Amino acid sequence: KSFEADLKQALRKGELEIFYQPQVNTITREICGYEALLRWFHPIRGQVPPSEFIPVAENIGLIHELGDWVLRTACTEAARWPRSLKVAVNLSPVQFRSRNLIQSVVTIVTQSGLDPDRLELEITESVLLDKNEQTLETLTQLKAVGIQIAMDDFGTGYSSLGSLRSFPFDKIKIDRSFIRDVTTRADAFAIVELVTGVGRSLGMTTIAEGIETEEQFACVKQVGCEQVQGFLIGRPVPATQLDHLRQASN
Ligand code: G
Ligand code: G
Ligand code: MN
Ligand code: NA
């Protein structure tokens, strides 16, 4: 069977699962929340990475159904966590541009019982590229119901620092390509320091992605980055393993 045909059945066959990766405060090391990361386990293909199946889901129009499922599952799960913990969900640009995005997001969040301010939607710079007025309108509506907005993979796309002025982000996720080099290259360090400073000045939370070593952790903490996420803190794990993870950090 084709990749597309298998993907279309994945949800119904129970092959999809959400893994959660912790985000911690750099000063207290307390967990602030988790990013929801979709996983596909196919009996023959094995584990298919989202970088391979998300683009296909976008092309065949399946992303709306998948995206709604991820959002519903993550919000329902998070509604049972301690109230101090947020959940971050990735939104595909295709989902973001859909006409009924606001209505479906609001319906799903309401039905889940999760406080909207505990939901953070991650968008990438590519959504800022086109139709800026509509983008601003959508973000403003999401924020009006209390949902938080994070700019994912910041620094890798085409948007500039100006987008931080034009759009109401609550959080900036500094891309892991900068973190990888932050302890060894002055240019990467300068960019992390700059983005953290701009974020703080604009009242946005900054988080460093892809933290793998204590040296990287110390480095981003030193420049004032508020949160980190990465294999050093914790790998993405199934929801059933979260209790254990939380206790281990306390
Ligand atoms: O999970 P992993 O580290 O392999 O993530 C690879 C990419 O897939 C990342 O860019 C991540 O944002 C994206 N991704 C993971 N889960 C989802 C999801 O539920 N929806 C969308 N649109 N992208 C996701
Ligand atoms: O684009 P986005 O930030 O949503 O993607 C998250 C991706 O980054 C996931 O695929 C996740 O597995 C991966 N990831 C998370 N932490 C680390 C890390 O410390 N190192 C590396 N190499 N990848 C990471
Ligand atoms: Mn993300
Ligand atoms: Na990212």
UniProtKB/TrEMBL annotation:
Q: Which domain of life is it from?
A: Bacteria
Q: Describe the location of the EAL domain by residue ranges.
A: 1-250
Positions the record marks as coiled coil are none
Protein name in UniProt: EAL domain-containing protein
Q: Which organism is it from?
A: Phyllobacterium pellucidum
